[in-house]
Structure formats: C-alpha cells, structure tokens
Amino acid sequence: MTGKAKSRQHVTTKAKSAPSKPMKKPVAAVSKGKEPSMRTGALKKMLMERRQTVLKEIEASIGHRLSDEQQQRGEISIMEMRNRVRQQIDEALVRLGEGNYGLCSDCGVEISEKRLKAVPFARRCVACQEKQEMLEKIEQEEDQTP
C-alpha cells in the first residue's frame, strides 16, 4: 500500500467514527465553490461599504443647519438611527472576525445569504427574527392594556 493510499484509508476510517450528529460550520467555512477566506473577504467588503455609506450619511446630516426645532429633533432621530446601524455593522465585523458571523444567535443555523445581503448585520435567521418580533409585539400590547 502506498503512502497516499494509507493516508486515504486513515481519513476514511476517521470519517466513519465521526459522531452521527451534524456539526454546525461557521459561515466562513461554508461556501459555494469559494475558499473560506474569499467569502470572509467578500462579506467584510460588503459590511465595510455599508458602514462607509452610513458614516457619509451621518456626516452629511451633521453638516446641515436647521432652524426649526421640530426639524432638528427629526434630524437627531435620523442621526441616532444611522448611528445604531453603524454600531450593528461594527458588531457584525467583530462576529466576522470571531468566525461566527452569519449564524443565528438564537438557533445557531446559518443565516441565508439573501438575508445577509439585505440586512448584513442580521443576528437572527428569518424564523427566529419573526418570533422575536412577535414576542415584542405581545409585550407592547400587554404594557398598553390597563
């Protein structure tokens, strides 16, 4: 038996003794024909571009002077909202660096690429996000009842 055949046999034997429970893979390791580093790089680029866009919007908002008090409050609210988006993008970049970006924080399954493209800082899969929103709605309704 050649050295290559022995190493293949060893790998095959190890694979047979692997646990039957499927293991969750980090998103960076699960890719469609791309190396993990290429996917991570592409995701990081997408997040950084989105972050730059939000920062530019914040800077543009700061540059405008408004005279009406009501408009100022609205502008501050918009800036706060954009800043929250920037913070969420920063958190997503940290998760990407840790290798758990793209995994649902509730159930651990991989978040679809379609969802990540729409909401690159998503922490939950669609199903878990819907459950969370339903719980929040119920809590709000309970708070409003006398």
What does this protein structure show overall?
There is one protein chain. Helix content is 66%, strand content 0%. With 146 residues, it is mainly alpha-helical. It is flat, with a radius of gyration of 22 Å.
Could you outline the blueprint of secondary structure elements for this entry?
Blueprint: H1 3-16, H2 36-63, H3 69-98, H4 113-118, H5 126-144
Helix pairs in contact: 2-3
- Helical run tally: 5
The helix-and-strand class reads mainly alpha
Strand content: under 5%
Report the strand count.
0
Helix content: 55-70%
Key descriptive features of the protein:
146 residues, mainly alpha
Question: What's the quick description here?
Answer:
The protein is mainly α and 146 residues long. It has helices at 3-16, 36-63, 69-98, 113-118, 126-144. α2 (36-63) runs antiparallel to α3.
